[in-house]
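We examine the record.

___
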Amino acid sequence: MDVLDAVTRLRVTGQGTPAAQSDGDDDWLDEDELLDDLLPDSAADRRWASWNGFRLTGLRLGSRRRVVALRLDLNEREVSGVKEIARGHWFSEGGGAPISWDGGSSVSLVARDLTLYRCWGDQEAETAVQRVANTSDIERVLAAWVVSESYSIIRALNVGTLDPNGTLTLSDRAKWMALLTDISASCVLAVEESTAAAIHRRLRRTSTAYRDTLHGLDRPRSAEGRALRHALEDCSESGVLGVLLSG
């Protein structure tokens, strides 16, 4: 049994806040302050429990008043034992100032029918939970995440194939490959191959940036290909992701 299975089998009942404080409660209260960046405040149902050195707490789901258990690693500031199904990261220079920016976000299954979204870095920290009844819901949630987090182009670069028809010279291909490997951003989906393929099809239908990037890779001499190469060259020279992240 994996950790996710074990945690989701825990039953969370009763009220989470003790009626009276006692010796040692300050330690729990200090830990509670660390939960703010990990869980959406409106859904957090703080419980004072631990398991093998990990903090256990509850996450309350909407009007059904269902509460699921979560295991937290407060040293690493993350929900532990979950199944991460998507992670994106980016790093960009500030563009004219001695400042760099970086950030990232993830989507994890914290129960068989519940996802937890988190973002961090040089953007406002945010968390949110969403119900997923089936694989189709997961496909929808992850496709929406790619678009809303501005990862459409990055994801297309991760999954697309450069010049499958062999129209580029060896020299041009080497230049393209150098530009593609110079990007300090990624968008990874840790899902079944069939789920990834369904998300790919959904993004092709719904995201112009995703579709144009795939076309530009497939046909690097097309207008889309020339525009993509120009954006990659700008990123390589300046260190600013620019249009590669904003679309």
